[in-house]
Specification:
162 residues, gluconolactonase activity, signal, 2% helix, Regucalcin-like isoform X2, zinc, mainly beta, 4-stranded antiparallel beta sheet, SMP-30, Neuraminidase
Length: 162
């Protein structure tokens, strides 16, 4: 049923674009909101400041999208970046995977100014080809992050949330 409503091939998902699903008289409507990205992942909505965050892994960019103004901002990091996780107590502090390192970032997401990057932890040396990949924070403020290549799920204990 899904493919009858939205015919596409899975190969086209390699180049991802941000879309908005809205409703018109006949049913749902999907609109393209941004240019295509290499590999965009980790969409995260921040209800406090009404922004959508996501990453373009291969480009090393973290984006914020404001659906009201349609402004798309980004910062550039040096390497593969994923995930992006906002912190609870400060809308300008994020946790991000940057290659093999988990970093804290101070960024004002309604602009493109990156103020600081600090290392939190690094993937263990016995896994030299592994790096951080998908991740989220749970309701208790714990980070759950998958590691690329080994495909194991780990919990990183950091006291970032008070």
């Amino acid at each position: 049923m899904f493919f009858k409503l939205f015919p596409f091939t899975l190969v086209t998902l390699i180049t991802l674009t941000t879309f908005k699903v809205s409703y018109i008289a006949n049913g749902p409507c999907v609109r393209q909101l941004t240019q295509p990205f290499n590999i965009s992942e980790e969409p995260t909505w921040d209800d406090r400041i009404k922004l959508l965050y996501f990453v373009d892994i291969l480009a090393g960019r973290i984006y914020s999208y404001d659906p009201v103004t349609t402004i798309l901002n980004h910062i550039q990091l040096d390497g593969y970046v994923t995930p992006i996780i906002p912190t609870v107590h400060d809308t300008h502090v994020f946790v991000a995977g940057l290659n093999r390192t988990l970093v804290a970032i101070r960024w004002y997401p309604k602009g493109s100014r990156l103020e600081a990057v600090g290392t939190l932890t690094t993937v263990a040396k016995q896994f030299p080809s592994s790096q951080f990949n998908d991740g989220k924070a749970d309701a208790k403020g714990r980070l759950w992050i998958a590691i690329w290549n080994q495909w194991s799920l780990v919990r990183v204990r950091l006291n970032l949330f008070g």
